[in-house]
Specification:
Elements: E1 9-12, H1 16-25, E2 29-32, H2 38-43, E3 51-54, E4 64-66, E5 70-74, H3 79-84, H4 86-91, H5 93-100, H6 105-108, H7 113-118, H8 127-132, E6 136-141, E7 144-149, E8 154-156, E9 159-160, E10 167-174, E11 180-187, E12 195-206, E13 209-218, E14 225-226, H9 228-234, H10 241-249, H11 265-285
Parallel strand pairs: 1-3, 2-3
Antiparallel strand pairs: 4-5, 5-10, 6-7, 6-10, 8-9, 11-12, 12-13, 13-14
Bound molecules: flavin-adenine dinucleotide.
The site of flavin-adenine dinucleotide has 28 residues, from strand 2, helix 7 and strand 10.
Length: 291
């Protein structure tokens, strides 16, 4: 364990174009947004890089825009801005719920949503809500832009689909009215803690049946995951506590937790089932259905 930050060349970009020029001309670099993950990672030598490109002052990547049929969030938007945003509370409340449970007020005022995703921790708390919201990520480089569904972004712990000279530009969330969604997080404390497991669910209901179900979990696999088997089991079924309880057990097919300092694999498995059931019940409550 080392705590002195190693020497590196520091570059600060004021615009997206400046940042893209820098990352296309430098080798051996990391970009710095809020720095709440990166600075620690540099200190403990998880990464050793010659160059750091500070993108934190690029104002054009700090926004929450409501386009009617979708919401766009700039990669450098602070977590606290998301928690406070009337647009997010109205159009994607499950994301606001998740962000409110992250870190502390001080960290949330520095940390960005883009940093949470690009850091690619299996415990990233913005991932499960964005998975169930079917978000896509817009990635940008000097060569142009491309969109990647969030479910294809995470490749492993600290590994993403970002190419070496690409930046995350924005997160796009399609607006889906008439659905209920919720986020439940279990940590070792009630607050200011990383997830032992967190679950987001989203439901659409038609005549007392599940018309659509989405379930996503973090901290129980090398990347955040969708629990497809449990989702498929519920689609088209009657809404009942028994159906929900049986489907929740199927999340075990899509997770592969490990034991670590926060919890054992067995406990994570048990809690994944419990939280999935409870989150589905809460999501139904949000469309006015009590089971
Ligand atoms: C005390 C504490 C508590 C925490 N609690 C939580 C918690 O409860 N839940 C949780 O999920 N996380 C938590 N975190 C982790 C961290 O705060 C979040 O992951 C945060 O959102 C990271 O954002 P950042 O802007 O600080 O990223 P940075 O540290 O600046 O960057 C993180 C990584 O992403 C890359 N990156 C950043 N932005 C971009 C971009 N636009 N394009 C390409 N690459 C980019 C960087 O190069 C780096 O590799 C906590 C951290 C601390 C220190």
């Amino acid at each position: 364990m080392f705590y002195r930050i190693p020497k590196f060349n520091y570059y600060r970009a004021s615009t997206l174009n400046e940042a893209l020029d820098l990352v296309s001309s430098l080798n051996d670099f990391k970009v710095l947004a809020g720095g709440t993950d990166l600075v620690i990672d540099l200190k403990v030598r998880r990464y050793t890089v010659k160059n750091v490109v500070d993108i934190s002052r690029i104002k054009e990547l700090d926004y929450i825009a409501d386009d009617g049929d979708r919401v766009r969030i700039g990669a450098l938007t602070k977590l606290q801005s998301i928690a406070d945003s009337p647009i997010i509370r109205e159009k994607a409340p499950v994301l606001a719920d998740a962000v409110r449970e992250m870190a502390s007020w001080q960290i949330r005022n520095v940390a960005t949503i883009g940093g949470n995703l690009c850091n690619a921790s299996p415990a990233a708390d913005t991932a499960p809500p964005l998975y169930v919201l079917n978000a896509t990520l817009r990635l940008v480089s000097k060569e142009g832009e491309r969109e990647v569904p969030i479910t294809e972004f995470f490749l492993g712990p600290r590994k993403t689909a970002l190419r070496s000279r690409e930046l995350l530009k924005e997160i796009v969330i399609p607006h889906e009215p008439d659905c209920g969604a919720s986020f439940l997080k279990l940590g070792r404390r009630n607050s200011f803690t990383l997830s032992v497991v967190a679950v987001a669910t989203l439901v659409k209901v038609d005549k007392n049946k599940f018309a659509d179900v989405r379930i996503a979990l973090n901290s129980v696999a090398p990347t955040p995951v969708r629990a497809r088997k449990a989702e498929e089991c519920l689609k088209g079924k009657e809404i009942s506590l028994n159906n929900i309880t049986e489907a929740a057990k199927l999340v075990l097919h899509d997770i592969s937790p490990i034991s670590d300092v926060r919890a054992s694999a067995e406990y994570r498995k048990d809690m994944s089932v419990v939280l999935t059931r409870d989150s589905l019940i809460k999501s139904l409550e949000r469309v006015g259905i009590k089971v």
